[in-house]
Design a protein that fits this description.
CATH architecture of the largest domain: 2-Layer Sandwich
Strand content: 15-25%
Shape: flat
CATH class of the largest domain: Alpha Beta
Distance between the termini: 50 Å
Largest sheet: 10 strands, mixed
């Protein structure tokens, strides 16, 4: 148990938690915070490994932040200590003794993976040699050039035939006017022979040209068949190697029951193990604990280093385990362990009321409290929609025209009739509705106003988080204007031009945006009593009166 670490700090006065951490949403236990701090001091001062976290501009490797984890454990002597791990691998591919080992080390010299990777590299080299062979390159060029040449030649010959046909038609017309019937019949036979001869010449010429092209294509096909055969072999061997790797990832739980990736993931919606499954810090930590009869007490994972360009990761901030890769694995590993309740199954709407700002026969305008769903969720039914539906059972409109994040408070417009919904929805689609939000940012913004343009898409491995993605993301644009600067925060107005999920939250927190998370943002910043984001103003054309109406509600922060 060389990875079991005793606390350097006195922890005798700290109570152990009653239940294990719910890994997908938590506030770190005091013991987790102490263990994390001790680990961070080690990372800052260690000489056991080399990894560029982005703090030293002189390092050669590309900068890359990394997730680290600590697991508070109790040994058979009832001593409390902790284990440490990192997600993925370090840039120098080392395995420092400070950290628990990976569940499977693909880089071990004697492993089948190294041999399999060498075989794939050999195939890649063969493919590269064939694809870069001068004869192959010349053949491709020759086929391409001849294809164009022959296409043009055939086109020219067809033009000649077309002109000859036109000429014969004119000569026939003239002959009919000037020749007697017997001579005209003879002349027509000559024209027919001339047409047949022209067609035969064309067919012969076309055949000659295509035979030249086919000969070149056959030579080229010889190369391409070899390349295709090698690529098929590479694909098959790669799939076989990947399956062998997946089979090595066998996860324990407290009963020491084993389940592998190929047994766990087919039962999920994605069905196939995603890249990196099993290499995150949480599974590594639990695997070591169960293998060495250590009782898990509390878990925490923090980010160390610069943020990736797509995700939002803040140095030294704690983050939950990812849902895409880890949730299916941890469901097995934590089976039977008494855990904190999943907060996503708990409704936070008890005692909260919707404030009605305006109402007429067509629309309702309400002030939605923070931590209140706009529409029913998978687990929680209480929402703006369900309450309005209960109050107005005869309303004909779909009711909800637009939404606010559960954590965001502020103005929601509701349609009571189908006609009103259609008119309002059209205005939202055309982006003629004017919206203004107010937010309190965790940081001081120097500029007075600006514009953020960062395309967004959902993080498939960690829903509902959003990623900045220039390849597949949807356009997301936000204008902003500073209202007031405080000691460590900035109050700001936000004007969303588009309405993407978590748009304002990501645009504020991302390093390419304002790099200052909204205060209380539990996804992209640090959790507080609430998310300090409020939809305070909206103006639009009333669906019945066709006059512009405006509504404002002040934030309570």
């Amino acid at each position: 148990m060389s990875c079991f670490q005793y606390f350097k700090e006195d922890i005798s006065n700290i109570e152990l938690p009653n239940k294990f951490t719910y890994p997908f949403y938590y506030e770190p236990h005091p013991l987790v915070e102490i263990a994390a701090k001790e680990l961070q001091i080690y990372i800052e001062n260690q000489s056991d490994f080399e990894h560029n976290f982005g703090f030293n501009p002189n390092q050669k490797d590309s900068p890359l932040g990394k997730m680290f984890g600590v697991l508070i454990v109790q040994n058979k002597k009832d001593e409390i200590g902790y284990l440490a791990a990192f997600s993925g691998k370090l840039q120098d591919k080392s395995l420092p003794l400070k950290f628990v080992p990976p569940i499977f080390n693909v880089h071990e010299k004697s492993s089948f993976y190294v041999q399999g990777e060498n075989e794939l590299n050999q195939i890649n080299q063969q493919i590269e040699l064939l694809e870069n062979a001068s004869e192959y390159i010349e053949l491709k060029k020759e086929v391409q050039e001849n294809n164009i040449f022959i296409h043009n030649e055939i086109k020219k010959e067809k033009e000649k035939m077309k002109m000859a046909k036109f000429d014969r038609r004119e000569r026939r017309k003239l002959a009919k006017e000037n020749l007697n019937e017997k001579d005209f019949i003879l002349f027509e036979k000559e024209l027919t022979q001339e047409r047949i001869k022209g067609q035969n010449v064309f067919k012969k010429r076309k055949k000659e040209l295509l035979e030249i092209l086919d000969a070149l294509k056959n030579k080229l096909e010889h190369f391409e068949t070899k390349i295709l055969t090698l690529k098929t072999k590479r694909k098959q061997q790669s799939a076989l190697l990947q399956e062998q790797i997946f089979n090595q990832y066998q996860f324990l739980n407290q009963e020491k029951e084993k389940k592998g990736l190929l047994e766990i993931f087919p039962k999920t919606s994605i069905q196939h193990p995603p890249a990196g499954a099993g290499d995150c810090s949480a599974p590594k930590l639990l695997q070591y604990a169960f293998s060495n009869d250590l009782k898990p007490i509390a878990l925490g994972e923090f980010w160390w280093g610069i943020s990736p360009k797509t995700e939002i990761r803040k140095h030294q901030h704690f983050y939950p385990s990812c849902r895409g890769r880890c949730k299916p694995i941890l469901a097995h590993m934590l089976a039977g362990i008494d855990m904190d309740e999943n907060p996503f199954l708990q409704s936070h709407t008890e005692g909260k009321k919707l404030e009605f700002i305006y109402e007429d026969d067509s629309i309702l305008v309400v002030n939605k409290p923070a931590e209140f769903l706009s529409v029913p969720g998978k687990e929680i039914s209480d929402s703006v929609y369900t309450r309005i539906k209960a109050k107005y059972p005869n309303a004909t409109g779909p009711l909800i025209v637009h939404r606010l994040d559960m954590s965001t408070s502020g103005i929601l417009v509701i349609a009571k009739t189908k006609e009103a919904h259609k008119t309002l929805q059209h205005q939202f689609l055309k982006r003629t509705i004017k919206k203004r939000y107010i937010a309190l940012l965790d940081g001081v913004i120097k500029e007075n106003e600006g514009f953020v343009d960062l395309p967004l898409r959902v993080d498939l491995d960690d829903r509902p988080r959003q990623l900045v993605c220039y390849d597949y993301g949807k356009s997301a644009r936000t204008k902003w204007k500073v209202l007031k600067r405080l000691d460590k925060t900035t109050k700001i107005h936000l004007f969303p031009i588009t309405g993407r999920t978590h748009q304002l939250r990501v645009h504020m927190a991302h390093s390419l945006g304002l790099n200052a998370p909204i205060l209380g943002d539990d996804l992209y910043g640090k959790k507080l009593n609430r998310l300090h984001l409020h939809a305070e103003h909206i103006s639009f054309i009333h669906p019945k009166t066709l006059e512009e109406v405006s509504f404002s509600v002040d934030a309570n922060f």
